[in-house]
Amino acid sequence: MEKKQLKEMSFLDHLEELRWLLVRSSAAVIIMAFLTYFISDYLFDTIIFGPTRATFFTYRFFCDLSHQLGFADSICITELPFIIQNTEMEGQVNMFVWMCILAGFILAFPYILWQIWSFISPALYEKEKKNAKIFIFISSILFFFGVLFGYYIVIPMSVNFVATFTVSDVVKNQFTLDSYIGMFKTSVLASGIFFELPIIIYFLTKLGLVTPEFLRKYRRYAIVIVLIVAAIVTPPDVVSQTIVAIPMLIIFELSVIISSIVYKIKIKNEQLS
């Protein structure tokens, strides 16, 4: 069995390494955020506020799907009856800065992963260190897929639901800029992090904090939670809820499979040692 090549470092040395990890990662986010300034018109008009228009890709896709399934215009979205208004003097300025930072974080995510890997690599086996590129590539792909899932599925479904839900015709929807941006950031980041679940489970299993038996035992609860989330963020129709729920269930099942593989390898190595 390979032995870990651990570099002896004091607690303060680890803190210093962690401090520089945060500094370099923050610098990367700021640099990428600054670069998004040059495409800010496209970032805000097309990307951020795209889901507020009935011509958005997801709405058109669902409408085409509705026709193909023989549902006519039952899930077609022709209008979104609401407006977004700014109620704070510095509201648009703050929104501009924070959304550039969010875009910078998403673009700099692979570099941040590389920094995290560099920080934990001294505690890994030599063979595990060689998998750095694979780890960063897979983690980045999962994160970007999660961000796209949040952007093209979760946000449009959420916007459509809150825009069309009303307790009375007397009430008109006028959402604040802060509430819309808050929903946008939460949906994108939460989806990106959720798609990192297989990677998180991989490390938790290696550390012995999670076992495949534990995941299988609570699978039914995970399924219920996923279905509840899908029901909350989508309109009350089976097609939309299914489209949201299936990728999340696949990610969970993939995590169970990864945990099982890692656990078997871990047990085998312990028996050989």
TrEMBL record:
Membrane topology: Multi-pass membrane protein
Range of residues in the leader sequence: none
Top-rank lineage group of the source organism: Bacteria
InterPro entries to which the protein is assigned, alphabetical: TatC
Keywords: Cell membrane, Membrane, Protein transport, Translocation, Transmembrane, Transmembrane helix, Transport
Pfam family, one: TatC
Bilayer-spanning residue ranges: 21-39, 95-114, 134-155, 188-209, 221-238, 244-263
Assigned protein family: Belongs to the TatC family.
Reported function: Part of the twin-arginine translocation (Tat) system that transports large folded proteins containing a characteristic twin-arginine motif in their signal peptide across membranes.
Name of protein: Sec-independent protein translocase protein TatC
Lineage: Bacteria, Pseudomonadati, Bacteroidota, Flavobacteriia, Flavobacteriales
Gene: tatC
